[in-house]
């Protein structure tokens, strides 16, 4: 996992400093400070960062053994927070080891139920320390705590999967070796799908798939294959199951064209829930891959035209969803009226949240890795917005009579969410107007859709 947890760590340390003074603390120890922090911090921050979180397949989380969560990793810090919120229970996470270098931070991360994992880039000497980390992970599983890993070992905002690292399987196999005869060890394939990777307050769908019973898997193949082959088989099985939980596009040269065609095809459907959109995307991808694989020459021509369409669409700032309007002019007018009606409240929200969104914009504009965009916004809003609510509430109570002051405070509470949602809606409305004007693209879209059928 490659993300920074500084905002979370600073918050946890400042509130629960006394908890960290215990030198012998174990990552799986029950801790009321952690429980309060998770309940009072994670839940509100996810509500602030996402418009909607849909959790599917929680019935697949085993209750009779050790549980290891293996998820795709696309959105930096937001991914573990989304999993923690969807699990709704204490969960131990693996994270990159370089952020554990200082003793104080090591205590903080232990308090937050996190363990380091060393990667090749940390040096071969450091990687040898993973043997001790695996021992600690097995201890976590023995104490019935879920262990969450991102086996791609880094994040990438893409509807695909990178090769899975071996760490998750070493942990599962070692746990099975030590106590598999007492209780089964499971790896639960998990998929996180976002509506938009770089848009703050997008939708997210978390899907827990059918677990891999590692204990049974080992028993079935015991004596038939080498340990290396057994690990490779587990790796293949987890990758296959994870790919079935997201809008998976094979990571080939055709990726961009296939994803563009997928978005254009599904945009023609009626407005869908996040879960329905995921299902439709998966069906569209499967159809496009099957159709184009059967005729490589025609597929190449289709991909070239799709990328050309995407280039002009993006140049005009047209979102694929706008292409689905049967009457784009009516949609554009209706959305514009709605924006004008909400403009006064939007200006109020923009004013009271100015320090947070201005600082967020400044930080995001300087990021080299845009996958950290929502992490930066999340951290800034977490740090500043509670303080701004207190300051503006005091101002309202001092400057206004009680009833108007209380009304003003109520209007403050959703200000951050409304500010970002209004901006997103305004961009969508602009996209609708641009699509209305781009008549020459309409015919090209119809031709692309015809060739995809």
Q: Could you walk me through the main structural features you see in this protein, from its secondary elements to its overall organization?
A:
Strand 6 and strand 7 form a beta hairpin. It is flat, with a radius of gyration of 24 Å. The protein folds into three domains: 238 residues, Glycerol-3-phosphate (1)-acyltransferase, CATH 3.40.1130; 69 residues, no CATH class; 110 residues, no CATH class. Strands 1, 2, 3, 4, 5, 6, 7 and 8 form an eight-stranded mixed β-sheet that branches. With 453 residues, it is α/β, with parallel strands linked by helices. The protein contains 18 helices and eight strands. Helix 10 packs across helix 11, helix 10 packs across helix 12 and helix 12 runs antiparallel to helix 18.
Tell me the total number of β-strands.
8
Specify the helix fraction band.
Answer: 55-70%
Number of helices: 18
**Overall 3D shape:** flat
Order of helices and strands: HHEEHEHEHHEHEEEHHHHHHHHHHH
Question: Terminal Cα separation, in Å?
Answer: 39 Å
What structural class should be given to the helix and strand makeup?
A: alpha/beta
Largest sheet: 8 strands, mixed
Radius of gyration, rounded?
A: 24 Å
**Mean pLDDT reading:** 87
Domain unit count: 3
**Proportion of residues in β-strands:** 5-15%
